[in-house]
User: Fold these one by one.
Assistant:
Number 1:
Amino acid sequence: MSSGTSGGTARSTVRPHSETARRGPVRTFLRTLDGVTIDAAYDPGSVVYDTGRPSPGHLSDLAIVVAHGFTGDLERPHVRRVAGVLRQYGAVVTFSFRGHGASGGRSTVGDREVHDLAAAVRWARELGHTRVATVGFSMGGSVVLRHAAAHEEGADTDAVVSVSAPARWYYRGTAPMRRLHWLVTRPEGRLLGRYGLRTRIHHRDWDPVPASPVESVPLIAPTPLLIVHGDQDGYFPVDHPRMLAEAAPDHAELWLEPGMGHAEHASGDALLARIGEWVAVRAG
């Protein structure tokens, strides 16, 4: 799927780093390079890591950008819970992908969403953070991989975490993925997505088809990469994370989590804390 583009640059309402630290969380709209308005929020966090030791009450040099899964948005309780755990390890930027929540445009289910993530990463850099990591779930997990592979100037990342992501496109090997394809490809499915799931889905097919996650992974090096997947994931079986890890043997780690299901809902606070610790150590 793809959507039309227009000129423009990433735009946001930002404050200097120290002023943001005093005033606390910020809510704004960002404009992507292809002209879509993205709802975004910033939380300066509660802890800064210095040589691995947390110091309460200081603004972190690290910002963690959270990329939610399909049909999520920054207001969803499961996304807010993820952000709440990760704020212990640095500042957190959350945003709603295009077609989700209060953001503009229509979802292209992982294609043009790389522009949305890039706008959020640029915002974190503008806010003064010298280290920026991305943590993505399901669709967002595929987006963080494709975004990191681009090494885009001004929107580059220092560490990447992909949770419950597919390795390849058009996978229909599980019942949940067959239902998702019906939702995306059928007019009645897109109607259900719009009014039942608050997700506006683009009607056009991808043209051209973007590089798949497994094709993107080798290009991420030397940026540290963590791949997290549950062995009980109902959407993507364990051959997906193994394919991703095998595509990047020198710079990727694979955590195959026993008993874990899919994406944010299946990511417990203990796992999220482990991810936060990994990011704090490996980002930069």
Note: The radius of gyration is 17 Å.
Number 2:
Amino acid sequence: MNEIYISTDVETDGPIPGPHSMLSIGSAAYTADKVLVATFSANLETLPGAQAHPKTAEWWATQPEAWAACRKDLESPEQAMARYVSWIKSLAGKPVFVAYPAGFDFLFVYWYLIKFVGESPFSHSALDMKSFAMAVLNTDYRAATKRNMPKRWFDPLPHTHVALDDAIEQGALFCNMLKESRSGR
């Protein structure tokens, strides 16, 4: 069974799940040859008793359009994550979570999956694009930033801080990196 790369971006109101909430999730399922197969998005109600982190709330104040986008059509976390698992299971291929950085996005998604659905269709398969860039570029980890990545890896897609937009953009970036890594360039 081929892998399906599920580029995922989350928007949150703080650095960790539990005390803070995942506000939105966006995922774009890509094949290795950069075919966008399907997308998923949801805006979530905040967790009972959770509060926004002051620094994150300060940042959100500078992003009024993205804030408005992630606060409309809210779903309960239980409903959104159950829908997410069903969506993942409907895809042809073994799901691999892909994010930039995976350490942040996967932390929230995995926590929400286990808490509200009791399972993760990803198991522990989370691919960090920054680590992958480090390997492809043969550079140090801290040098593997987007500003140091070759321009040819980037498609002209927006980075809006709307979870689905960013998941699509980062998925295309990942597929470009994957293609180059496999071509021996």
Note: The mean pLDDT is 96.
Number 3:
Amino acid sequence: MVATTVHLLRHGEVHNPEGVLYGRLHGYRLSERGQAMAELVARTLAGEEGVARHDVVAVIASPLQRAQETAAPIAAAFGVAVGTDERLIEAANHFQGMTFGVGDGSLRHPAHWPHLRNPFRPSWGEPYVEQVDRMLAAVDAARVAAHGHEAVLVSHQLPIWVTRLALENRRLWHDPRRRQCALASLTSLRFEDDRLVGVGYGEPAASLLPGASQVAGA
């Protein structure tokens, strides 16, 4: 049997001082902290600081700027080009471009309330099952391309999280506050041939997360 690992990497922190739910909007770049997160992930995968070098042969990202910028230092560390896969894009969301909250946010407007009627689908955006289907198709393509090695797919929190839920045979609807998918985190899918044999999770940029005791480069 041949072992292959596909890592699902959430992008780093985004520059978003207005607090907009940016969704699939273009032009949202990484913050300085987000850039430092991407560099730290690249160094960790490349084996600095006494960690064994990973065997990454493919780096593929969502087409959105924040994902492409997160992928760039990883691709450079392994001497490969950044590929783009539309299937890794953020989930579509009715509230894209708005602030989302009960104060002066979009939730105070009754016109938006029908979009909240069904959290199981969910009614405010792309169905969970559709996100899982496209993400698994991207994972399968990357597994084939990186056969016997490792691939890094840079995507977004919700698509990564519901993909993990599906692979672990858990229900797809969930409390967003309970997602285990921090900024610049790795959800690692381990395969033997085409069979999934394990799911791992790590936070190589944990020291840079907002609220960490030491935020280097913030």
Note: Confidence is low (pLDDT under 50) at residues 214-218.
